[in-house]
Amino acid sequence: MTSTKERQRAAARARLEKEMAQRAAAARKRRQIQASVGAGVALLVVIAGTVLLITNLGGEEPETTTASPAAGTAACDWIEVPAEMRTPQTKDVGLPPTEVPAIGSETLTFDTNLGPISAKLDLAKVPCTAASFKHLATTGFYDNSKCHRLVTEGLQVLQCGDPSATGEGYRETDGTGGPTYRFAEENLPVDKRPAYPEGVIAMAKTSEPSSTGSQFFIVYGDSELSPDYTVLGTVTAGMDIVKKVGADGHDEAFAESAGGGHPKTEVLIKSLTLTAG
């Protein structure tokens, strides 16, 4: 017989999935609006002037609406995971800001036990994902966590980002950890073949929309996945490290489920930083 606690968790999970779907639709609509915002300040001025002119000619007071993000910024919707659905592997470090930069680029650097791995991020394409990384990095969320999964057949990816994957050895729960929030996917490679070529860093997620969290995977060989995972950026240094880890293989711990296993060569993220440019 199903326990009361199990029924409560199932109901909470259903509520969260429904909320994720609703917020994903709202986020898509906002991104369509923000695409014109990111086109440039000059365009914004023209559009704003046109809207003002039409409103004045109409002779009616405009309806009060939620303020749009400032030029060069984007609005992010962070979906908090209900308390009853959090596990010991969940790490609460609060929420990132809701209005974030959406122009320029940043360099993401993983300081690992095998050497640094760096990637370039385009904030116009992944403003919310980059903002989440920056927030998590500044709180030490990723410090001393291990890359817990390596796939070498079909896909060639190294997966990291579980804050609970720490200490000696591996555990069955590795790969289940994350922050106390989720958010919508960005920069999906729907028109790319392969969708995830060598050198890409992409975000892991569940089958549900708006389920991106902290976990990510580094692609070290062209991988044909459905274009459902945010492309965060492209590796600019350290790909030789990832390729070496891939060549060393894994222990097949996930062979019967997700595929792959724990990498035989341990990859420890000592710290993670984002810098401008």
Q: Can you walk me through this structure?
A:
27% of the residues lie in helices and 22% in strands. By secondary structure, it is of the alpha+beta class. Strands 6-13-4-5-12-10-11-8-7 form a 9-stranded antiparallel beta sheet. It has a two-stranded antiparallel sheet with strand order 1-3. The protein has a two-stranded antiparallel sheet with strand order 2-9. It is globular, with a radius of gyration of 21 Å. 37% of the residues are buried.
Short summary:
The chain is an alpha+beta fold. It has helices spanning 4-37, 41-58, 127-138, 239-248; strands spanning 73-75, 79-80, 99-101, 105-112, 115-122, 145-146, 149-151, 156-160, 181-182, 200-203, 216-221, 231-237, 268-276.
Question: Top keywords for this entry?
Answer:
277 residues, alpha+beta, two-stranded antiparallel ribbon, globular
Describe the secondary-structure layout:
Elements lengths: L3 H34 L3 H18 L14 E3 L3 E2 L18 E3 L3 E8 L2 E8 L4 H12 L6 E2 L2 E3 L4 E5 L20 E2 L17 E4 L12 E6 L9 E7 L1 H10 L19 E9 L1
Antiparallel strand pairs: 1-3, 2-9, 4-5, 4-13, 5-12, 6-13, 7-8, 8-11, 10-11, 10-12
Q: Cα-atom Rg, whole angstroms?
A: 21 Å
Instruction: Please give the oligomerization state of what you see.
Output: single chain
Termini separation (Å)? Answer: 57 Å
Overall 3D geometry? globular
